[in-house]
Automatic annotation (TrEMBL):
The protein's name: Uncharacterized protein
Length: 72
């Protein structure tokens, strides 16, 4: 994650941008990529290019994002 909110993934020879949302506050990955935004919403990367995210939760009270090997 860059300071401008962009999220990148390393492929075998290059970097691919997954998102450029300025609300990105944190990301975590465990085989899947999850994004926490400053409005408290939590998103999962759907794997279909830039801006391919599915909202999992929209709770403004969310204060932390963490994953284990198999679970968010």
């Amino acid at each position: 994650m860059h300071s401008d909110g962009s999220v990148w993934v390393r492929n075998s020879t290059s970097w691919t941008k997954l998102d450029d949302n300025i609300k990105t506050k944190a990301i975590t990955a465990n085989g899947n990529v999850y994004q926490w935004r400053s409005d408290g919403s939590v998103w999962a990367y759907a794997g279909k290019g830039l801006h391919s995210w599915t909202e999992l939760d929209a709770n403004a009270a969310t204060i932390k994002l963490s994953t284990t090997y198999a679970h968010l």
